[in-house]
Amino acid sequence: MNEKRHSPSIHSRKRLLIIDGIPGSGKTTTATRIHNRLTAQGERARCLLEQAENHPLLPPMEQYYALNTDEGADDFIRQLVDRYSRFVEEQLSSSEDIVIIESVLFQDIVSVSHLQGMNIAQLQSFTESLQLLLMPLNPHLIYYYHTDVEGQWRYICGIRGNEWGPVSFQSDEDFVQAGEVWSASQAFVRAAIDAWPIPKLIIENKDYTWAEYDARIESFVSESLLSDGMNIRPK
């Protein structure tokens, strides 16, 4: 079973919905659709897309450049722990009951740290620290897992073109290399996700059957995210 239910860590009506996966998985589309549904139902919800200006959970690009050094990794970790701590504090006192974030935890922080060569033991401890920091917000996760990572890169570039955002593919070898390195980072992320005791929906994307995925997401939002909010009461 990929859908898992766990008791929230604290008695709070706050919920955090994390939508993640490798680039081009459909995270932004999913986040936007869920946010629109929630607000239409009268839920007090906020959606923080990856491209939001001055995103509270994303550091400047230059802070990623030295993650393969102890000093660079230590500084990056300190700054991210501070960002996440402040984010949680702000959300706990905000008027929104639900906040949605997409891409910024596992893709933009954990996966990129892996790709940039952060020490694995250090990255594992860092990932666990961020997961623990988020627990007061009763996190729920929707994760797109790709069984063919190279195929996913070819698929999304067939739609978006070979150059978009930070992506630039100039040859067939570029796709092969991207498949190899992102498969390794995805495996690290999947292990961290499997060990995280929160409600989660893992979509193993093999055939791009979006109608099926959307139906599972709708059920997860109704039966887990929203029902947890109704069942939790402050002491």
Outline type = globular
Spatial order of the strands forming the largest sheet: 2-3-1-4-7
Largest sheet: 5 strands, parallel
Give the low-confidence spans: 1-11, 231-235
Q: Provide the structure class.
A: alpha/beta
How many domain modules? 1
Give me the Rg, rounded: 18 Å
Could you give the count of β-strands?
7
CATH superfamily: P-loop containing nucleotide triphosphate hydrolases
Oligomer state equals single chain
How much of the sequence lies in strands comes to 5-15%
Mean pLDDT: 90
CATH overall fold name: Rossmann fold
Order of helices and strands: EHEHEHHEHEEHEH
Please, could you describe this protein's structure?
With 235 residues, the protein is α/β, with parallel strands linked by helices. 51% of the residues lie in helices and 14% in strands. It has a five-stranded parallel β-sheet with strand order 2-3-1-4-7, covered by helices on one side. Strands 5-6 form a two-stranded antiparallel sheet. The chain starts with 14 loop residues before the first strand and ends with a helix. The N terminus and C terminus are likely disordered.
